[in-house]
Amino acid sequence: MDAVVVLVLSLCCLLLLSLWRQSSERAKLPPGPTPLPVFGNFFQIDVKNISQCLTNFSKVYGPVFTLYLGMQPTVVLHGYEAVKEALVDHGEEFAGRGSFPMSERINKGLGIIFSNGNRWKEIRRFTLTTLRNLGMGKRNLEDRVQEEAQCLVEELRKTNGLPCDPTFILSCAPCNVICSTVFQNRFDFKDQDFLNLMEKVNENTRILSSPWMQVCNNFPSLIDYCPGSHHTILKNSEYIISYLLEKVKEHQESLNVANPRDFIDYYLIKLKQESHNQQSEFTLENLAVTLFDLFAAGTDTTSTTLRYALLLLLKHPDVTAKVQEEIHRVVGRNRSPCMRDRNHMPYTNAMIHEVQRFINLVPTSVPHAVTCDIKFRNYIIPKGTTIITSLTSVLNDSKEFPNPEIFDPGHFLDKNGNFKKSDYFMPFSTGKRICAGEGLARMELFLFLTTILQNFQLKSLVNTKDIDTTPVLNGFASVPPQYQLCFIPV
After folding, report:
1. Do the Cβ atoms of 412 and 349 come closer than 8 Å?
2. What is the Cα–Cα distance from 231 to 332, expressed in whole angstroms?
3. What's the CA gap between 203 and 61, in Å, rounded?
4. How far, in Å, CA of 348 to CA of 326, rounded?
């Protein structure tokens, strides 16, 4: 009986402490719904459609509000003005990486995506410099993407115009571009190592976007103590990192400091240069996680966008016809599309931008955090507070994009049919944490899509009105429904 009394009193004290902490914190933070002890606002959030929930909250509390995801406060930025003011105008203060418990179990604060402070600055600076050395934004990288686009076309020809699920084939192309940049070799589409890697990367994205993972990220103890699909993510990630470490070992044995071949070689040279520095951020463990970040981020985001793009083109054959007419007029049939063509193809450029806007690939971006106590719009946000940016609210702004729920390349065209840029176009986020691979992703999307549409007609297996483009998952990423189509050679 005494033990029960002690337990009840302890729980009461924890609840009172939680309430006191929340009330004192909330006094200075932006407004928001009243949280429950321990659970916060979790029961007021639909984990199947977080973006819509954030929009509903913004209508009540304004563009900057506070949610308690578990016991910790999270400040939400909703709408273009709030997102720009924070990530661009106060870029340094909002440049921290916020809490993302599942990824923290994998990355342990290393790499480029989930690191912070000086470590993040050094690794990001090195990564951007090295990618530029390896051709990012230059002709030799474009040649690589063009070659991969032709390999993709040859693989699609092997379907002989029969129905196929494009998921795997579309994953291989961007993955091979990353592989050739990171460890200087591409894989045959039938290579078993390649098949295993692609399967695990795709599976991780699906699980990370599931409602269960949104629960786990709000209550991190579930990750450590409960069974569930999150263990598959950890297992898959261990497999990928182990594979990448094998590649690092091979590079160590064949390294020529005078002639670096790829990203791994550049990093190993930097490692040697920093060997005297006990505080150096350049370690083999950090290399493995950085490679993992490049591999995962550079593969699945682009392949998912490609898959979604083809689904939308099936749904809107009028758009497809206009794009193909422009491709055949500007590029013709006898040469490969190149990046110079994009300036002469406003409708195609607008279509690709509209795909990225419409699918809203990463609805709330990756969490940010403030790097110091900051006064923001008359609220005090303490150092370390997690920040969620609703990219959905920017990409779906009805003032900038009339009828944002409709897929319409005209959102990026002026009255004369010329391509029109928009500051609201933020699929890669914005500010200091903007995606490091944005330039490569834009190149791949243009070259892969134009090369496919140059060589094939897309044939749906169902009537266009029956094609559903609603994402089946939209937690971390928006995952399109599975579908089949026929690639008919032209």
Report:
1. yes
2. 49
3. 36
4. 7
Average pLDDT of span 168-178? 90
90 burial (CB, 10 Å; 0-12 / 13-18 / 19+) is middle
Q: What are phi and psi of 486, to 5 degrees?
A: -115, 135
SS3 228: coil
Confidence (pLDDT) at 285: 93
Weakest mean pLDDT among 195-204, 277-286, 393-402: 195-204
Phi, psi of 417 (to 5 degrees): 85, 10
Contact yes or no for 33/41 (Cβ under 8 A): yes
| Strand ranges inside 4-123, DSSP E | 64-69, 72-78, 96-97
Confidence of residue 189 (pLDDT cuts 50, 70, 90): confident
314-328 confidence digits (pLDDT tens): 999 999 999 999 999
Q: What is the mean pLDDT of the chain?
A: 90
Place of tokens 């590029």: 331
Backbone angles phi, psi at 459, to 5 degrees: -120, 125
Alpha carbon distance 414, 397 (integer Å): 17
CA distance 185 to 194: 11
Choose among 94, 107, 52: nearest CA to 434: 94
pLDDT at 4 over 60: no
SS3 per-residue string spanning 162-210: CCECCHHHHHHHHHHHHHHHHHCCCCCCCCHHHHHHHHHHHHHHHHHCC
Average pLDDT over residues 42-69: 92
* Alpha-carbon torsion (356, 109, 71, 229), positive or negative: positive
Helical axes 438-455 vs 284-315, angle rounded to 10°: 40
Q: How far apart are CA 376 and CA 380, in angstroms?
A: 6
pLDDT over 90, % of the chain: 68
Per-residue model confidence (pLDDT) at position 473: 77
Burial 242-261 (b: 16+ CB within 10 A, else e): ebbbebbeebeeebeeeebe
What is 111-166 written as a DSSP string? TTTS--HHHHHHHHHHHHHHHHHTTTTSHHHHHHHHHHHHHHHHHHHTTTT--B--
CB 50 within 8 A of CB 363: yes
78: closest CA among 380, 369, 393, 475? Answer: 393
Identify how many contiguous H helices and E strands the chain contains and give both numbers: 17, 11
Q: Looking only at Cα atoms, what is the longest distance across the chain?
A: 86
- Quick one: tokens of 208? 């990370």
